[in-house]
UniProtKB/TrEMBL annotation:
This is Nucleoside-diphosphate-sugar epimerase. GO terms for biological process: D-xylose metabolic process; UDP-D-xylose biosynthetic process. Residues 9-243 form the NAD-dependent epimerase/dehydratase domain. The lineage of its organism: Bacteria, Bacillati, Actinomycetota, Actinomycetes, Pseudonocardiales. PANTHER family: UDP-GLUCURONIC ACID DECARBOXYLASE 1, UDP-GLUCURONIC ACID DECARBOXYLASE-RELATED. Its cofactor is NAD(+). It comes from Saccharomonospora glauca K62.
Length: 314
């Protein structure tokens, strides 16, 4: 028997890196949780800790084809390949996840009278010409470039969510997530933090792309998840950047990971920069701090220590 006030959340893409942490947080605060995932880039092992939880149900299904058998209050949409390696490997699946998957999940939210939160991305800004990026910057995206399947899928998804809100009065939220890292990232998905951590622990040189002068702003996953929860419960229907404004170069990141793993600070090799790799990326989080009273709390070294410890134990 469920308590009368218990909320029910649906996490589409919940077997992935961020989604599994979101599921953990929702269960910890007492929600019932459904997770829909087709396991394209996610793993059931990410959800091993909730397998026997009485309030948790996993459905292996595509985001474009599922039903939920009980009333749902909130739909968190995270389904999509997310690493450059994954979305290049699955270009059509990525475009489908941002279009038909989002549309079906919006229809589910409509039927249930649920709020809908889309996890969009800083990639909607492309290789930005404005710095740091505010939500009113419209971006610099090549629609036929090597990242277009991901960037344009997310831009389309934002447009779809906006149209559902305007047409049907659906309560919608758009989170533009900036680079997030932490335990449970796939060590083989090519993203910079799990790659550097894997290489540093294996005693291999770190593969720094280009001269390592490009920047990213890295947010620890617990902070990102807290931002998503705050956004869903807020009244903010415009897009909101969720990220950590502490901007560093890839070279600085490599040196920090090497030092935290007890390795020599210059044990790295320089590899070609991927085509159209964004040069700078840093969120302006003014909107998140004012509308959600949210800001990241985990510093880079602290977050990297937690990530490295999990990788050592995993
Ligand atoms: P992830 O690959 O670990 O998780 C994505 C999950 O979606 C996986 O479990 C995958 O199997 C599932 N999925 C993909 N297509 C699906 C479909 N059609 N139907 C059902 N499930 C499907 O990636 P992540 O890093 O956890 O990212 C989660 C979301 O956050 C993504 O939408 C991503 O675009 C967004 N995001 C992540 C970051 C980041 O730095 N991690 C940054 C910006 C945006
Ligand atoms: N990168 C790197 N070495 C690696 C993997 C990535 O130097 O082994 C760089 C990559 O070229 C980019 C940055 O790290 O400049 C972040 O890459 P990631 O794939 O994590 O995410 P992106 O922000 O590019 O989507």
């Amino acid at each position: 028997m469920h308590q009368q006030s218990q909320r029910c959340a649906l996490v589409v893409g919940g077997a992935g890196f961020i989604g599994s942490h979101l599921v953990d947080r929702l269960l910890a605060r007492g929600d019932r949780v459904y997770c829909v995932d087709n396991l394209l880039t996610g793993r059931v092992e990410n959800l091993a800790q909730c397998e026997d939880h009485p309030d948790f149900t996993f459905l292996q299904a595509d985001a474009a084809d599922f039903e939920i058998p009980e009333p749902v209050d909130a739909v968190y949409y995270l389904a999509s390949p997310a690493s450059p390696r994954a979305y290049r490997r699955y270009p059509l699946e990525t475009l489908a996840a941002g279009s038909t998957g989002v549309r079906h999940s919006l229809d589910v939210a409509r039927r249930h009278g649920a709020r809908f939160l889309l996890t969009s991305t800083s990639e909607v800004y492309g290789d930005p010409q404005v710095h740091p990026q505010r939500e009113d910057y419209h971006g610099n995206v090549n629609p036929v470039g090597p990242r277009s399947m991901y960037d344009e899928a997310k831009r389309f998804a934002e447009a779809l969510v906006t149209a559902y809100s305007a047409t049907f009065g659906l309560q919608t939220r758009i989170a533009r997530i900036f680079n997030t890292y932490g335990p449970r990232m796939d060590s083989e998905d090519g993203r910079v933090v799990p790659t550097f951590v894997r290489q540093a622990l294996a005693g291999e040189p770190l593969t720094v792309a280009g001269k390592g002068e490009q920047t990213r702003s890295l947010c620890y996953v617990d902070d990102t998840v807290a931002g998503l929860l705050a956004l869903l419960d807020s009244d903010e229907s415009a897009p909101v950047n969720i990220g950590n404004p502490h901007e560093i170069t890839v070279l600085e990141l490599a040196r920090t990971v090497l030092s935290l793993c007890g390795r020599k600070p210059d044990d790295m090799v320089f590899v070609p920069l991927p085509p159209e790799d964004p040069q700078r990326r840093c969120p302006d989080i003014t909107r998140a701090t004012s509308a959600l009273s949210w800001r990241p709390t985990v510093g880079l070294e602290q977050g990297l220590r937690l990530t490295i410890a999990a990788a050592r134990n995993g």
